Predict the 3D structure of the following.
Amino acid sequence: MCARVSRVITSESKMEARMEQLTITSFVRGYHAYQDFWTPQIGEILELRREPENIKDNLAVAVVKSDAVVGHVPYNLAPTLSHFLNRGGNTGTAEITGSKLNRGGGYGLEVPCIYRLCGAKKYIEKMRRMNLDNDDKDASNA
């Protein structure tokens, strides 16, 4: 079933029975801006939070550790994940899967991860139809 982030989901037993999970292989972006505050550890689980007050992008999704922003979801995924997280009961985490790297192309330092989204079946199915469930795909364009 879906992993819990630091808060309790309401109506646990009934809600969990209808919850599904989707995974997206990608990167945590912006590590270069947060490297003084966070050292990524493989296997570390971080929370995803919408940032509607972000002055650069009101659909930004932050990657959070202990209430501190340590990176962001890539801009091409952020709008979709932001809308998903805005639906009641939907949650998301990032599991760190590798060490920081620079792939070039102006992306700066990134940290490989798997985004795990947990939510109502109808929202997960909608994201699958958008071809976001990419466990078996190359994450090079994330």
In short: Residues 61 and 73 are 6 Å apart (CA to CA). Residues 5-11, 135-142 have pLDDT under 50 and may be disordered.
